[in-house]
Design brief:
- The structure is a single chain.
- The chain has 127 residues and is mainly alpha-helical.
- The chain folds into two domains: 72 residues, no CATH class; 50 residues.
- 64% of the residues lie in helices and 6% in strands.
- The protein has a two-stranded antiparallel ribbon with strand order 1-2.
- The protein is rod-shaped, with a radius of gyration of 31 Å.
- The N and C termini lie far apart (102 Å).
- The mean pLDDT is 81.
C-alpha cells in the first residue's frame, strides 16, 4: 500500500506521469522484474479471485499503460510459446527454401533420364 500524494510526487520527480489521476482510493504498486507478460497474467488471475484488486495502470519500458493495455499484455502467450512459434515458422521457411533449391536438380535428372530413354528407344528403332 502506498500514500497516493507521496507516490504522485515521487513519480513526478523521476519523470513518470503514468499515474496522474489514477492514484485515488486504496492504491498499491507492484515492482516487477522478469517477464512482464507473466506478471500481467498473475495480476489478472489474482484479480479474478479477489475483486477488490483493480488494476488502474502501469508503466513498462518508459511507456505508460492503461488498464486495457495491461489486459492485452496478459492475454499474450508466454515468451517460450512465442519463441517456439517463431522457430517453427523459420524452420518451415527453410524447408520450403531447401525444396525450392532441390527442385531444379531433380528436374534436370528427370530430363536427362527422359533424354537417355528416348535415345535408347531411337537406337532400338534404327537397328
Amino acid at each position: 500500500m502506498v500514500k497516493n500524494t507521496l507516490t504522485a510526487i515521487a513519480a513526478k520527480e523521476v519523470g513518470i506521469d503514468a499515474f496522474e489521476g489514477k492514484l485515488n482510493g486504496p492504491s498499491a504498486i507492484a515492482f516487477i522484474s522478469g517477464d512482464p507478460v507473466e506478471a500481467a497474467k498473475s495480476l489478472r488471475d489474482f484479480a479474478k479471485d479477489n475483486p477488490e484488486l483493480i488494476v488502474k495502470g502501469g508503466y513498462l519500458d518508459g511507456v505508460a499503460m492503461d488498464e486495457a493495455e495491461i489486459k492485452k499484455l496478459a492475454d499474450l502467450e508466454s515468451r517460450e510459446v512465442l519463441l517456439a512459434k517463431v522457430a517453427g515458422a523459420a524452420k518451415a521457411s527453410l524447408s520450403k527454401a531447401a525444396a525450392l533449391f532441390q527442385a531444379p536438380l531433380s528436374k534436370t535428372v528427370r530430363t536427362a533420364e527422359a533424354l537417355r530413354a528416348k535415345v535408347e528407344e531411337q537406337g532400338e528403332n534404327a537397328a
